[in-house]
TrEMBL record:
Belongs to the TspO/BZRP family. It is found in: Membrane. The lineage of its organism: Bacteria, Pseudomonadati, Bacteroidota, Flavobacteriia, Flavobacteriales. It is a multi-pass membrane protein. Its main location: membrane. It comes from Lutibacter maritimus. This is TspO and MBR related proteins.
Length: 153
């Protein structure tokens, strides 16, 4: 039987992370600092970020709900909350205090952690591992954008 209460909890936590991240970046994407930043030529349009993060958090919620059934729960929750903190803190360091290098370190750390989820639990999760693939792929794109911003500004 599927654990819908756990799924609801992960949906609340993941979309809560998006809300906290948005709050921490304040008006980041519309500030003069960001608008005048040298951005990568392959930067996606602004609307795509909302679509991507909504898709990612839906998939990640289903992934985490399934993963809790396979591995020791405490270990999974610790990894989840590290991911949670890294995810939301990037917004603050990048958009609020303009520490692009620190934000890049956070993003690389988050990518390694999400990659750990993807590759380490693949044997247990099987095809369900594909649910975390959008998160990992998006982080690779985000890393390239952050690296460009770090090098060009």
């Amino acid at each position: 039987m599927y654990n819908y209460k756990l799924l609801l909890l992960f949906l609340i936590l993941n979309f809560g992370a998006l809300a906290i991240g948005s709050w921490l970046m304040d008006k980041g994407p519309t500030t003069n600092w960001y608008l005048n930043l040298n951005k990568a030529p392959w930067s996606p349009p602004g609307w795509l970020f909302g679509v991507a993060w909504t898709t990612i958090m839906l998939c990640f919620s289903f992934y985490m709900t399934s993963l809790v059934g396979y591995k020791p729960v405490t270990y999974i929750w610790i990894l989840f909350f590290i991911q949670f903190v890294l995810n939301i803190s990037w917004n603050y360091f990048f958009f609020n205090i303009h520490m692009i290098g620190v934000a890049l370190f956070i993003l690389i750390s988050l990518t390694i952690l999400v990659g750990y989820f993807l590759f380490n639990f693949n044997a247990d999760m099987g095809k369900k591992s594909l649910l975390i693939a959008p998160y990992f792929i998006w982080l690779l794109v985000a890393n390239s954008l952050n690296i460009y911003a770090y090098l060009k500004n």
